[in-house]
Each structure stands twice: as C-alpha cells, then as structure tokens.
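Troubleshooting log. The previous structure file for this entry was overwritten by mistake, so regenerating from the original sequence record. Sequence copied from the archived sheet and checked twice against the printout by T.R.
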Amino acid sequence: MTEPVVAPGRPRGGRRDEILATFTRHIAERGYDRANLGDVAAELGMSKGTIVHHFGTKDRMLAEVQERYMRRRLDEAHALLARLTAPEERIAAFVHAGVRYSTLEPATTVAFQREVVRLTDVPGMETARAQRDAYRDLVVAVLHEGEEAGVFAPGDARLRSLQMFGSLHWMWTWFDPQGRMTPEDVAAEFCRTLLRGLGVPDERGAAASDPHGAVARCVTEVLTHESPGTGVPGLVP
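Regenerated output below.
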C-alpha cells in the first residue's frame, strides 16, 4: 500500500504525525480559518517554530491533510472495485464507505469535508485536487458502465456523481454516529434512494443496500483491514 507523503528531509512518524493529528482535529472543530498553529503548539507543549520546522506553513499542513485523506480513499476505492463487479454493488459500496468514514475517521473526514471547497483553486492543493478528480472519475466510470449494461437508466453520469457526493460531503453538518440511526442504516437508506433513482430494480437495489449484506461486509473488510497505515493517532491502521 502507498505510504503517506512526507516532505523531503522531514522525519517520518512520531511528533510530526501528532502535530498533524491535532491540527486536523482543530480544523474539524473550528474550520481552517480559525485553526491556529499557536493553539496547536500550546496543546502539545511545543513552540510554534517546531511546527513550522516540520511543515513550513499552515497551508502546506492543510494540503497534507487533504492529500493523505484522498490517498486512502483512492486505495480503498480500487480495492472495492476489484472485489465487486455489479454496477449497483459498486455504487452502493462508494456510498457505504462514504458514510462509514464519518465513524472510522471522524476528525479527518470532517476536516476534509469542511474545507473541500479549497480544492477548487487554492494554490498548493493541486495534488489533492487531482486525487479528488481521480476518485470522481472512478464513480463516473461505474455510472457509465451501469448505463451501458442496462442496469442504470440513461442520464448524465457526471451530474449523478455530484448528487451523490453532495449528499455525503454535507453529512458533517448533521450526522451523529451515536444518533437514532446507525451509520450502516444511514448508508442503506442513502443507497436505496440513489439506486432507485438510477432505475435499479428493487430486489437488486435492496441486496446492494442491505446494511448487513455482502456489499456492506466488503466495505467493512476493506476499510478496517486494507487501509494503508497513516501513523496518525485515531486513524484506522
């Protein structure tokens, strides 16, 4: 599996990852603009200069958070596509995984979702932007394949992918993993709605959406056993 990118000349793991994990949590709680390197340094009992030594700038830190996040998502997406073949199963897997990130990597997922708009045109985000586009292209390709196979009704695959991502990327504003619905049940409801809209027969859609079914189990296996190590405390090993 791909290891996290570390800037040339910088040490791997240890204090550096602790800094990034704390910074990520601050973004999740406050947003990037209100995340302050001085606060991160004070919480960790170090100087602000130590953080600058490891990362250079606050913008570079955010870029690394986004790049690490999207690298893991791409690795998982390829693993899911290798295991599942039916178009409705593949789309359901993307949704199941998208919901599950909020419980497996809550701080990192919220930080990414809160600041995803910065991938649009902020300098320094080119790598993360390319990773995001690559992930989107995987989903669009599955939507095209499903339409060509007659599983999905004809439609605009790019627009459909945006509808899917829109529902998942705003979950940080309302989703409570400890709320009345489990993450698995939320994912199942999202899947049923999406697949029905794509024209998938109810029986096939129900099987792909099942929170305890083969697709959900596959997602669990990939996310909990095949995710690359990040070295960041609190993330899936």
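The first helix runs from residue 15 to 30. Archived copy saved in two places this time.
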